[in-house]
Amino acid sequence: MSGLPDTPDILRRIIASKVERVQERRRQISASQLESQLADAPPVRGFRAALEARIAVGQAGVIAEIKKASPSKGVLREDFDPAAIARSYARGGAACLSVLTEADFFAGADAHLEQARTACHCPVIRKDFIFDDYQVLEARVLGADCVLLIVAALDDAQLSALYQRARSLGMDVLVEVHDGAELDRALRLGGDLIGINNRDLRSFETTLETTARLAPSVPEGVRLVTESGIHTRDDVATMRARGIDAFLVGEAFMRAESPGDRLAELFD
Ligand SMILES: O=P(O)(O)OC[C@@H](O)[C@@H](O)c1c[nH]c2ccccc12
Fold first, then answer.
1. In this structure, are residues 241 and 226 in contact, taking their beta carbons and an 8 Å threshold?
2. What pLDDT sits at residue 6?
3. CA dist 175 to 78, 197, 219, 245, 262, Å?
4. Is the distance from the beta carbon of residue 88 to the nearest atom of ligand 1 less than 6 Å?
5. How high is the pLDDT of residue 150?
6. Which residues of the chain carry a pLDDT beneath 70?
7. Alpha helices (H) along 68-132
8. Ligand 1: which of 70, 72, 200 to mutate, most ligand atoms within 8 Å of CB?
């Protein structure tokens, strides 16, 4: 785990539980065994490319999230069928999917990613708390097209090693930041897909001001994704008026009876 002094407590707790799970997993399947499964992994679907394709024709690029629960909101959806949700999202116009695989705080599972991936053609990001090379390898074997790296949870050496590893496996990387210092670190890394998390992990409050404030510091050529707290057509319009074209949305869709219909309503 990272020795960064200002990592939010919730991140520390999630990663501490994750460390145990990764150890356990490694006892079942070694890294070299996983390596040998790479050849059978489904081919990479371009994650960033799918976003860019939508944006190029004037649409928003939407990453639609599949998560059963979250630490701040508890269970979001009782009737939880990742394949059905994935199909609904694809019909509703999602460019990409985000699937939580973290079990203890988000009620996620690796199987959710596999189910969502095989149910539609959308590229998928493995949404998890990655600190170990093993998890990057595992993501690709599961069929992930992109991984999330959270700057607040990693030091520069870890960030760079995990980033290079993911890229060398052909995956895109969504590098997540929440403030200016983290954004600087993400840009130094050379990340070309940066997520600005509107949720403050200390208070769990979301404000789109976070994206509005940081966006001007994101250079051309870097795709910015606004993450968390997008609930209304007004939220979408506010962001698009500021030139933000890529969105990661979870709760607003998960609470809707038809997640895909809700997506189409928010982004038509
Ligand atoms: O449900 P929301 O508010 O629409 O947020 C989605 C997504 O941004 C959020 O789930 C998220 C952002 N960064 C994360 C890192 C890990 C787990 C989850 C997240």
1. no
2. 83
3. 30, 10, 15, 17, 27
4. no
5. 98
6. 1-4
7. 82-92, 110-119
8. 70
